[in-house]
Each structure stands twice: as C-alpha cells, then as structure tokens.
Design brief:
The protein has about 300 residues and is of the alpha/beta class. The chain has three domains: about 40 residues, no CATH class; about 90 residues, Nucleotidyltransferase, domain 5 (2-Layer Sandwich); about 120 residues, Endonuclease III, domain 1, CATH 1.10.340.70. It has eleven helices and eight strands. It has a four-stranded mixed beta sheet with strand order 5-6-7-8. The protein has a two-stranded antiparallel ribbon with strand order 1-2. Helix 2 packs parallel to helix 4, helix 9 packs across helix 11 and helix 10 packs across helix 11. The longest helix is centred in the N-terminal third of the chain and has 18 residues. It is extended, with a radius of gyration of 26 Å. The N and C termini lie far apart (about 70 Å). It comes from Triticum aestivum (Wheat). InterPro entries: RNaseH-like_sf, RNaseH_domain, RNaseH_sf. This is RNase H type-1 domain-containing protein. It holds the Pfam family RVT_3.
C-alpha cells in the first residue's frame, strides 16, 4: 500500500493478520523501568519494505522469584511450619536448592531473600515441575500479564515494587551476619596437604588417579595466608576445612539459629555460602539429614 502497488488485494489472510495485530495492541505487555546495569535485548526484524526494532528486558526468573517470595510470606502469615513449593522455572529451583550458583547479582539477591524467609519454617522444599503439569498456575500468570479479570474465588494482589534491589558496592563489602554464627578453628586439614604441596612445590602423589584429581581440582584453588581456599564459579573464596569441622558447621546450620532443618542440598549450599568448603560436604549432609528425627 505504501508503494502504491497496482496488484494489491486485501485477502482473508491479510484481514486475519490485521485482526491479530489489533488484538495484540489491545493486550500489550506490562512495561517496567529497566534496572541500572541490567542487560537490554534488541530484537530486529527487516525485509525489503520495513525494519522493526524492539528493546526489551527479560525478567522471567525475577517474576518466578517474586511469586515464590509472595507465597512464602503468605505461608508465614498462616503460621505454617512446613512448606512444599512447586515451580516451572528450573533455574530458580536449582539456585534455591543450591545445585547452581546465582551468578547474576539480582538473582543472588532474590535467593538470599528466599533463604531468609525460608528460615522461619521447620521444613521447606522447592521442586521443579514441568510447565505442562502446572497449567492452572500458568493460566493465572497469563491472565495477569494480559490484565484480564481474574476468575471468581481467586485472590489478586498487585506488587508495585520489586521485593529486592541490586546490591551496591557498599553492600558487597559488608560481611554476611549469618556467617558469624558459625564457629570454626583455623587448622590445616589433612586432605589439603597434597594440594598445598602441589601448588607450592609441584609435588604430586605416586598414585596416578589421585594425582590427576589434585591437578584438576587445583585449578579452582588458591592459597591465602598459608591456607587453601576454594574458588566458586561466582568468584567467592571458601576456606577449606576438615571433614570434622565441616560436619560441625552442618550441624550448626541444621539445628542452630541460622537453620531450619533444611534438606541436604540446601545445607551444603548454606555452608558454601558462609565461606567453607570440603570434599565430602554432600555425603556428610546426606548422612546428617538421614539421622535427624525432625526431618
């Protein structure tokens, strides 16, 4: 039409596309202001007649965290003691369980907020569920994004502000207060001696399998003040401790003021988050949980 084409014909397909366009314009996506330093995505579509550009920011995981936090706050207000949550975001489920690190600062802030409120429950668990098995919640989320009326007997709560904010440089230098709850002795664990020998003198044990393990694991190790430290994928340094010390740390987290009888994966994640590391952490946590009468 713009080029005054002589053979232009308004077909049924064109009419259907026009109606679809009107429907989409009547149900726009919810706009939100970008967060400082948050990546923006540019989508470009072009053909011989037009060029279309859209700048968007994807916050699906942030929305999943917001929903999780809101549900946990409601459970807390209802004085529930044990909570089992289901979500179709595998990233959120893996981060909260401690299987994956939260590399993004905003996701890390959300995870800390979830850990904080989850500490009020005697038992807490988040499981990933396939979106196809989560149809009811998925249908409600579409209603919300399209701003359609909610069905009867459905509660609606509008969140005007995000529950967390990106940490500032001042926040990053403040030590985690929960880490002060865990007491630890500064001794050189026996299992770290071969790593220190390799990293300082290039010495390796005669056993080839053990030598390969030390060589591979040493790539994520560093020495500070004569002590071996493990570097996580997020760049955080964790002091290497003995299995006995690690088991005591797990007990304090599991039973103490900073714990809530969490599962084994969550226990290990908290121990690592507090800045400690040892090779048998997962096995020790599973053993502790299996012997706990309250779990």
């Amino acid at each position: 039409m713009m080029n005054k084409m002589d053979d232009f014909f308004w077909s049924d397909a064109a009419n259907a596309a026009f109606e679809d366009l009107k429907r989409r314009l009547a149900e726009p996506s919810v706009l939100a202001a970008p967060i400082d330093k948050e990546p923006l995505l540019i989508y470009v579509a072009a053909n011989t007649r037009a060029v279309s550009v859209a700048i968007v920011v994807e916050r699906k995981e942030a929305a999943e965290y917001e929903a999780l936090l809101h549900g946990l706050w409601m459970a807390k207000e209802m004085n529930l003691s044990r909570v089992r949550c289901f979500g179709d975001s595998d990233l959120v489920a893996q981060q909260v369980s401690g299987k994956w690190d939260s590399k993004d600062p905003l996701m890390a802030a959300y995870r800390r907020e979830v850990d904080a409120i989850a500490g009020h429950f005697k038992g807490y668990q988040l499981e990933h569920i396939d979106r196809r098995k989560n149809e009811a919640a998925d249908a409600l989320s579409r209603l919300g994004s399209q701003r359609k009326p909610v069905p009867p007997n459905t509660f609606l709560d509008v969140l005007h502000n995000p529950s967390v904010k990106l940490p500032t440089e001042e926040d990053l230098v403040v030590p985690d207060p929960e880490a002060q709850l865990v007491a630890a002795l500064h001794v050189i664990p026996d299992w770290t001696v071969p790593y220190l020998a390799y990293m300082t003198r290039g010495e390796l044990p005669e056993d080839e399998t053990l030598a390969r393990q030390i060589t591979r694991r040493s790539k994520s190790m560093t020495i500070a003040n004569g002590e071996l430290h493990h570097r996580s994928v997020t760049g955080a340094f964790q002091r290497c401790v003995s299995p006995e010390e690690g088991q005591e740390i797990l007990r304090e987290i599991h039973e103490g003021d900073c714990g809530h009888h969490a599962g084994s994966k969550s226990l290990v994640a908290k121990a690592f988050l507090h800045g400690f590391y040892w090779l048998t952490a997962h096995a020790d946590a599973e053993d502790l949980v299996s012997k706990c009468d309250g779990c």
